[in-house]
Amino acid sequence: MFKKGFSTYKIGNLTINVFTNDIVLIYIGKNGTYIKNIYKKDFFHLSKAVAMTVGFIIISSIIITAIPSSEASAGASGVEYAESADENNDNENGKLMVLADYDIKNIEEDEKLKNELLLSDKTDFSVPSVSTPLKVQTHKVKSGESLNGIAKKYGVSIDTICGSNNLKSYDYVEPGITLRIPNKEGILYNMREGNNVAGLASKYKIPVEKILAENNFKNPDFVSEGEVVFIPDAKPQNIFSGFLWPVNSRKITCGYGWRRNPFNHEYREFHKGMDIAIRYDWVKSTKYGMVTYAGWMGGYGNAVIISHPGGWKSLYGHLSRIIVKEGQYVKQGQNIAKSGNTGRSTGPHVHFELIKQGDHTNPKKFLKR
User: 211-229, pLDDT tens digit by residue?
Assistant: First the structure.
């Protein structure tokens, strides 16, 4: 009796697999397993039943003529193929093959596994990753050198230099100081009391695994105070390129340019800054610099002027309270005063100006969004 299952037929130890273009005959005997592949075109005018009968006769003749020396033995891999000892049996329909110590039922599973691997990302091509060992160099700043020039010289960003040396500005570096410069992007951080690797990862938003990969910690859970930790791809958090908004509000009640005088609408005047509406809140330094004026300024009320590297100056007017002094250096984003309604003012706000090399500019063009 034939047992039909999909495209498979069985007659005792003989299995006949009918595929689209060929027929595979498999006979499992005492001395091994024999496989014969026959193209369907050779049986074009025959019915399936006749084809299977012919196949049975062919495989039977193969088994009768097969000699023990043609049997394949299992190799180190557990699977080994061997051609028939009778080379005259080779023809265009395929070659007789012997499969030893192998379960034919696993063939379909192997094909499935192979296809899954071929189509998976695991077997995709990728460029070999080359990990560059961390190397730290030192550079003594000479008079006239800029951070931009130093960064180009060592092939790293200004962020890396500023963050690794706790600098307060992207625009200025003091001559004579010695900078430590890593050979890759990131920050050299001196571990402080109470800090740990997990905390640094959270602060700088860098995966813990990346930090551990760049540092040879004896115990990642207990990094001693003062030990230098390299945080890859981290950027300084206390400075930003450009100018910061001096207050949290973004509501501009009067912009830069010509306007009607708020106290006399018949009079037109040029407004050299912008007024930002905010009620008695902290005013911050737009950029690192030195406080060059802090006090009363007539119609501008309480005011602060800060001089910045590169010929820039910023002015903050109508303040209710000033907390910095002339000659004091302030960091970018540092609180310097509180907004108010002093001087010639129509309500609580801060008057903000930016001056470059003596020329007034529209502050909105330069403020970091």
Answer: 998 998 888 888 888 999 9
